[in-house]
Amino acid sequence: xxxxxxxxxxxxxxxxxxxxxGNAKLFHFHVPEDTVLLRWLLQASRGKGPECTSMExxxxxxxxxxxxxxxxxxxxxxNATVRPSYNISITLSSAVQNTxxxxxxxxxxxxxxxxxxxxxxxxxxEVKGFSTPCPYMFQAxxxxxxxxxxxxLEPGVPMPHTVxxxxxxxxxxxxxxxxxSGMRFQLSSCVTSEQRACNVRVLLGSITLPQSxxxxxxxxxxxxxxxxxxxxxxxxWLQIMVESLGTANASVSLEMLASFTVCRPGSTSSFxxxxxxNQSQAGARPGAAGSSAPAAGEAPRNASGQRSxxxxxxxxxxxxxxxVSVRYRLLNGPSVPVNSLSPTLLLLNLNTGMxxxxxLVVNLLLxxxxxxxxxxxxxxxxxxxxxxxxxxxxxxxxTAFSQGYPLSVSTSSGEAMLIVLYPQTDxxxxxxQLLCPRGQGDCTSAEAKxxxxxxxxxxxxxxxxxxxxxxxxxxxxxxxxxxxxAGWGGWSCTDxxxxxxxxxxNLATLLLTLSNLMFLxxxxxxxxxxxxxxxxxYTYTMFFSxxxxxxxxxxxxVMCIMDYDTLQxxxxxxxxxxxxxxxxCMARVKKILKYVLFILGTxxxxxSLQLDRxxxxxxxxxxxxxxxxxxxxxxHHGAKxxxxxxxxxxxxxxxxxxxxxxxxxxxSVYAFMETNENYYYTHSIWHVLVACSVAFLLPPRDKHKKxxxxxxxxxxxxxxxxxxxxxxxxxx
Length: 732
Known about the structure:
- Residues 455-494 form the EGF-like domain.
- Keywords: Cell membrane, Disulfide bond, EGF-like domain, Membrane, Transmembrane, Transmembrane helix.
- The structure is a single chain.
- With 732 residues, this protein is α+β, with helices and mostly antiparallel strands.
- 27% of the residues lie in helices and 33% in strands.
- The protein has 4 domains: 3-147, Jelly Rolls (Sandwich); 159-262, Jelly Rolls (Sandwich); 312-457, Sandwich (Jelly Rolls); 502-697, Up-down Bundle (Rhopdopsin 7-helix transmembrane proteins).
- The protein contains 11 helices and 33 strands.
- The strands form 7 sheets. Strands 7, 22, 23, 24, 26, 29 and 31 form a 7-stranded mixed sheet that branches. Strands 20-21-25-30-27-28 form a 6-stranded mixed sheet, covered by helices on one side. Strands 1, 2, 5, 9 and 11 form a 5-stranded antiparallel sheet that branches.
- Strand 22 and strand 23 form a beta hairpin.
- Helix 6 runs parallel beside helix 8 (617-641).
């Protein structure tokens, strides 16, 4: 046999602490057919700075779809199917880099996914630029060993083979036809080169993670042995590996035979399906009513033929709506007939390669008036690759190499729902059959009508009122995840263990919005001292900060007067410009220079915020530059007057020092104390402290400016303005 090794690599990704699925870094690989060995090379590394500590990285594996993970231990939505993912942990302690190998023999061909993440996020809100987080990098590479000339085992044809040694197992494959209800594998004429009874082990199927249903057959001391499989995967190659368990120098000769039991389906003719499809798409038109009449007449004649078959196939149309959004429509109507003689089968196509990033939802609704038996139950099973065709005997909803998802509806419970999170890429089958508790005879002539609704959605229930459905991308692959808010958690934001009450949400909104009213004293002080431009800036900041935080709330207490992004930009712009104009006002520079700096600084701040809205230097840069101008101006005034500036000790004790203290505390709270849990009151404290510091730091008005005296200015009724100087005119 000729083996070919192939290597696949993807670029490294920077890992994040986990708070929702978007923090997990996804790697998507495709394993080719006839692969006998798969080896993952996992490389994790961290930075060398003092902020880098020991860290544990969790890596999840899954075949066919992204892994369903739950690192936070939250609840999944009701009726959701959850099976634990296969994961390993990689520890970065003293070593800067860690290399780990994971081997998978006889892996299943198709899509494989790896998701890696750091432990749970601490919830602290870090200001960008204040601290340097440690970079943790992760890269996954894939090595495959593929057999180029794997022998094909033809059904019904015995094939002799020889296993040379235990170190060189034998690999063959057989193609499973459509509608195969069973498979029987037989090993005969098995003897060693020493003419002794064979000692071999046969592995049927491929390994899939997180759960593998590979079947094993051990032939020890027996010449012939066999294994029967129910519902093998339709229209797929099935790998068979035979390995010797004897001595190293003894070869094993054997003969293999694979046979299938094929089920004869019964369904409406393809011509009638085509007519029904045209009618449903085109609607009523001339001649449509006449063409549907023969179909109704032929239905009773086809009933006997359908009941004699092993399954009843119902035609289903796949309708693509959007990205990871599909609706399945039954051509014969939403209700399907279900009897006890043979299962009713629906095919849901999810094999495009882009359907595994959402949630498959199946809803069954029983028409109770259609069931004549009171205790009858409709049992259903949702399975991938092949349907379950023995619901009336086994009831365990399992196929040869997978475990399906059971459902049931009855007269006492007429509705059932199933949610498959990240369904694997494959053909999915929904099997339904009518069961009676008192035996098969009571259900022979009975028939139930079950309405089936099936669809694929990016996020189940659109993540609810306390979540946001986000479409994520890894190269060309798209998948969806829910980002929860207001303390809600879980896969679909349905876990209310840590959820905020409506009262707490209203309190948070009131604190974050009404705390901006503390700018009113600063505005009043600015107007009283004739700093009208500064007062306008403070008013602008108060207005947009109030309505930005009213729109930024995670719960139900939300009010947006305009686009969220616009409100956020205006809030950030007003905050930085308020600091800019306050410090320049304290500098006491000439008016023309002050207003030029006002306009020029505002334009530069607007540009920098557009480039990086959350960068710390967008606030620190203007602050430091304005402080440099203020210190230079104060030194100039002090040198010119030959004493300290400001010269009044009262100005320092009662205004400057309290204002500087409040500003320092505000920056400390903003940069080091805010977390996701205490944000609503720590950020409100930031609003109050900044607004109060502005009121303290504003300098007194110019000496030549007289205070506002409305009674003196409005005595003449027609003259509001007053000239500061008198002009003399000569009359000739």
